[in-house]
Amino acid sequence: MNRIVALTPADADNGFACCGAVQHAVAPGQVSETLAQALDEAGSGVVILDERLVGEMGEEMIHTLERRWSGVLVVLPAPGVSEAGEDYAMRLIRKAVGYQVKVRT
After folding, report:
1. What's the CA gap between 24 and 2, in Å, rounded?
2. How far are the Cα atoms of 32, 40, 52 from residue 11, in angstroms, in the given order?
3. 3-78 has CATH 1.10.3810.10 classification
């Protein structure tokens, strides 16, 4: 069975653990190494990366890794930090269904 692995800043609570995910608190300077390890682990099926960690690697590197890896790599907006929530949600929907969808509220 594939695991869900969540990579968060070191100061984040262990909220992912309550839903069965393995959560790694990543120290500054360790994002690239920790992400590579999570992607290389045989049991990893979904890797969640807190968007606060993306700045250390850069979005282009994240997209490159996402295209190369057979699992699902998801960058989640940090709670209360991201203003681009709808844009991110639209990218997830487009990826899941394969084309752009207009969402009306």
Report:
1. 16
2. 18, 25, 11
3. no
Three-state DSSP class for residue 39? helix
- The residue assigned the tokens 């899941």 is 96
- Calculate ∠ Cα 24-74-68, nearest 5°: 100
pTM for this one?
A: 0.71
* CA–CA separation, 92 and 98 (whole Å): 10
* One pLDDT digit (tens) per residue for the chain, 105 residues: 588 999 998 877 777 877 788 888 998 899 999 998 999 888 889 898 988 898 888 888 888 888 888 888 888 877 665 455 556 666 666 666 666 556 555
Exposed/middle/buried for residue 87 (C-beta within 10 Å: 0-12, 13-18, 19+): exposed
